[in-house]
Amino acid sequence: MLEDKNPKKTALSKLGEFGLIDHLTQNFKINQESSIKGIGDDAAVLNFNNAQTVLTTDLLIENVHFDLSYMPLKHLGYKAVVVNLSDVYAMNAKATQITVSIAVSNRFPLEALEDLYEGIYTACKHYNVDLVGGDTTSSTTGLLISVTALGIAESDKIVYRNGAKPNDLLVLTGDIGGAFMGLQVLEREKEVFKVNPNNQPDLSMYAYIVERQLKPEARKDIIDLLEQLQVKPTSMIDVSDGISSEILHICKQSKVGCELYENKIPLDPQVISTCEEFDIDSTTIAINGGEDYELLMTISQDDYPKIKANPNFTVIGYITEEAKGKHLITRAETAIPLKAQGWNALNDQE
Ligand SMILES: [Mg+2]
């Protein structure tokens, strides 16, 4: 629905696999010291000296993880990189390299893949990571993208999910719920478009939440900030599935309980107004919606003075002994057990 009506279409068969890879990756440059050899040989060569290496991978499938009727390919390329970098940052590591593999059907002309790689290129530049390899193959149906990201950290800097201790503060970056509500708006506009294809959607009043869905950012800035403030979280995770599920991951791995305060959860005014418009409870969205790619961490109370004046951080609760359980404390001060409903489960309910 957001597509150009008369695009140029060059068949992929014109280039062949190697020609295609060369064409799509010709503008990518190597910037990281650790990238000894990037694309162009049988394998990339990397040298991390004595640093520990963080490795993460993600597979995205058309119509399962993304819908091209409202997701421009440029944004998809950007997002595919960002979601992986977010996992690297969630380890308190610095992202350095990625590989990208795609499978495409002949439905996609060269120009479509150029758009996809433009998004990948923009993300590489913005986050200063090198594209050092990948694969391109054909698919019988839709588009598949697999991104692998590498990062480095000194061994004493890496933050795992299992280090939270009772009395630690539960801290969230940014605000949440926006990506989920952005998706609701896009899905609604898609239905309108199906009925009337001439109807161009006006999304200006939803700009922030639509951007949170289509062009999320990974919180590299927070990793730099934590270093600057000399705060090492006791545990950390990125918010891909919703904070309820992420908090439970931390609690399970750290063998602790927690209290999350409903009235402390940071929401953008656009999330609140869109929730009202859709008649959905904003707290449900905040804790179960996903894809915000913020960072959720626990920090020692001793570190609180270092973060308290910083608008990037919000204390949303604290860690308790495991036996106390995991609860959401509502505005009415009722304790409700936290459940891992998550992003997918929320979709299934509709
Ligand atoms: Mg993660």
From TrEMBL:
Residue numbers binding Mg(2+) 4: D42, T56, D87
Which residues of the sequence carry a binding annotation for Mg(2+) 3? D42, D87, D238
Q: Name one GO molecular function term.
A: thiamine-phosphate kinase activity
Q: Which residues form a coiled coil?
A: none
**Enzyme Commission number(s) from the entry:** 2.7.4.16
Domain annotation PurM-like N-terminal: ranges: 40-153
Metabolic or biological pathway, per its Swiss-Prot or TrEMBL entry: Cofactor biosynthesis; thiamine diphosphate biosynthesis; thiamine diphosphate from thiamine phosphate: step 1/1
Q: Give the binding site residues for Mg(2+) 5.
A: D241
Reactions listed under catalytic activity: thiamine phosphate + ATP = thiamine diphosphate + ADP
ATP-binding listed as a keyword: yes
Task: Write out the residues that bind Mg(2+) 1.
Answer: T57, D58, D135
State the NCBIfam families in the record. thiL
Q: What does this protein do?
A: Catalyzes the ATP-dependent phosphorylation of thiamine-monophosphate (TMP) to form thiamine-pyrophosphate (TPP), the active form of vitamin B1.
Q: Which family does it belong to?
A: Belongs to the thiamine-monophosphate kinase family.
| Further facts | Reaction mechanism of ThiL seems to utilize a direct, inline transfer of the gamma-phosphate of ATP to TMP rather than a phosphorylated enzyme intermediate.
Q: What is the recorded name of this protein?
A: Thiamine-monophosphate kinase
Q: Which organism is it from?
A: Microcosmobacter mediterraneus
Record lineage: Bacteria, Pseudomonadati, Bacteroidota, Flavobacteriia, Flavobacteriales
